[in-house]
Request: fold
Amino acid sequence: MELQIWTEKYRPLKFSDVIDQKHVVERVKAFVKDKNVPHMLFAGPAGTGKTSLALTIAHELYGKEWKQNVLEMNASDERKIDDVRGKIKDFARTMPMGSVPFKIIILDEADSLTPEAQQALRRIIENYSSVTRFMLICNWSSKIIEPIQSRCAVFRFKPLTDDDIKKFVERIVEGEKLKIDAKAIDAIIYSSEGDMRKVANYLQSAASLGGKITEDVVYDITSKAKPTDVKEMIQLAVDGKFSEARKKLQELLLAQGLSGVDIISEIHKQIYSLNISEENKMKLIDRCGEFEFRISEGGNELIQLEALLAQFMLVGKG
Reply:
């Protein structure tokens, strides 16, 4: 097995490798073909291919010499105005190398920039557009000031579907010659919540244990609550079997070492599958929000989760 992180090993380097996002890729390919790339703003959920597409554009434009013409920065590390005026400005005002008439600055997590830093960045974008193109990447475009948004072509990435993730899993399984069962693939898709980085990391972690990758192995390495266990627990509470539900909770919390917040998150997902009225589902969702807040404020996880199970029992009794 190669000593390489699979998130990088299987990162797209060609447009044909980018999973889904066809509505974005087709527009970007046209810009790259004409070598007339505008400033771009990539916005969308984590792990959907925003940074990968930006690097793919750089590879397509510059080939092997791409690193000489590209500055990649993470705005969450360098978010102050001095960083923008220093490193970014120094790179932006120098001439590009090669046949492409501009360089590229990739600014990841741009929504972490302070408003002051964004104002400074706006001036740099204005002054050096002739020799530099900016690619801003963020989860929330609303956190980017309007003057920057108006100077960029905005591309919105949509969450990846289960089928897209399954194809990516099968690609890694084939490339790494892994043994994995169908339920394990479903567990990876469920646990990743549409984030391709999580998919690759989960697979690599599971493969490192050796042997066949099963559903139980996946939930062990993801440190997430198994949906069937959580559903069984809350169903016991709704049915009035509080002692058995409490025993199941202690197994999840103490024996399996899961966090209270993770258990509440899975409880929230499983509420919709309960055979109770819509009104009672609304009440339980409201209760989940309250008890998650209590835990985040420092409440004892076991006590708060037992109190939440008590709410399920009260609903079951009508």
Remarks:
- The longest helix spans residues 278-296.
- The first strand starts at residue 40 and ends at 43.
- Residues 227-316 form a domain with the Zinc Finger, Delta Prime; domain 3 fold (CATH 1.20.272.10).
- The chain has three domains: 21-156, 163-222, 227-316.
